[in-house]
Each structure stands twice: as C-alpha cells, then as structure tokens.
Prior knowledge:
The protein is built from two helices and ten strands. It is mainly beta. An eight-stranded mixed β-barrel has the order 1-2-3-4-9-10-8-7. A two-stranded antiparallel ribbon has the order 5-6. It starts with 59 loop residues before the first strand and ends in a 13-residue tail after the last helix.
Amino acid sequence: xxxxxxxxGAALSVGLLAGALLFGGSDATPTGRTAPTAAxxxxxxxxxxEVVTSLSRAEPVQVELPTLGVTxxxxxxxxxxxxxxxxxxxxxxxxxxxxxxxxxxxxxxxxLIAGHVDDFTGPAVFFRLRELAVGDEVExxxxxxxxxxxxxxxxxQYAKSAFPADEVYAPVADSEIVLITCxxxxxxxxxxxxxxxxxxxxxxxxxxxxxxxxxxxAGLTAPAADLPNV
Length: 230
C-alpha cells in the first residue's frame, strides 16, 4: 500500500484522526486556444440551458455545520516527511488537505476536511460530527467569498487497521467532500481511538448560489486564507 494511504503516526495521540490521504485536484492551464463549441439545442433548435455542477476553484477558509452549531476556520494540511497526512495542531480547528481537490471542484477524488474528536481536556472541533444526519448541510466558505454547500449523503465507521482508503477517496462523478475524525473504542495503551468516522456530502449548486448571494447581501467578507497549521 502506498505511504500516503497509511495511518499517520500522529494518530497515536489522544483523539486524533487517522492520516489517510487522497490524490486529486486538477488546475491544469490550457496551452493553446481552441475554437468555441456551439451551444447545445433541443430537437426544435431552442437553446438548452447549461447545467452547472461545480464551482470555480477557490481555497476553502471556513467550514460550518449549521445543524450542530459548529464553525471552524480551516488550517492548511500537507504531508509529513513519511508521506502521511498532517493533522491539525490546534484541536479546536479543522484542516483541509491542500494537495487534493478543493471543495467545489468537479468530479474526481472528494475534497478532504479533517478534525479531532477530543483530547485530554475535552471535546474538540468534530466531537459532534456523528450527530450529522443524511440531508444535513455542510457549508464551506471559500477565499472568493462564495459558499459551497454540501448535503450529507452517507456516514460510515471504519477500523483504522482496515481503513478502505481506496474506496473512501476513489474518484466520483459529482463534487463531493469527506469529513473525517476518530470514533469507536479508545485504546488507552496506544492513546488512540480504534476507528474513523467518515461523513460524505455532495455539492448542492442551488443552495451554494443562494448562500453565496446571502453573504454578499449581508456585507460579509471571507475569513483569512492560507492559515498555517500551528
């Protein structure tokens, strides 16, 4: 198994998530000009409205779980020297993997947002993640002040020793995100939870446009981007 799919060594600390990782993201720049294609039409020759299924690429800066009352700025997560995923240093903040897809990107591996469940002092940022239900929304504010709204579609629990990274991070046809934290029994000897909780959510374009317009109307500005993992 490639090193980027292995659990992070940091996951041995209290309440840390497993450092499973994904490849993804595509921001290739065209190398030349191409002739524009004709707009699609129906059988009667009438223009067919374009169906937009993803957002323009912008860095995520904040995640909100409205039904849980959870809001967190997002720190940048990269790779450790051994190729495993970094985990947030601050237990009160979630982080996003900057080497994969951005939330709102089109089809491909889902974007990844990770957070702790707790530490020795008490609950951490994703302590209540298990309370999410199918149909709940996950809102990701982005650096361009738009909001990518995702709807929870699935929740699964996996043993860290048998985490199906190839399945969880496989490319998909829609724009998706995965939220991940620890769960299950706590192994006091290893100072780690035995399992991971994985929440998957799919982009809702209509709600994204609605919430993005609402931010502008309310005069809100985007939080700071490129937060270091400190």
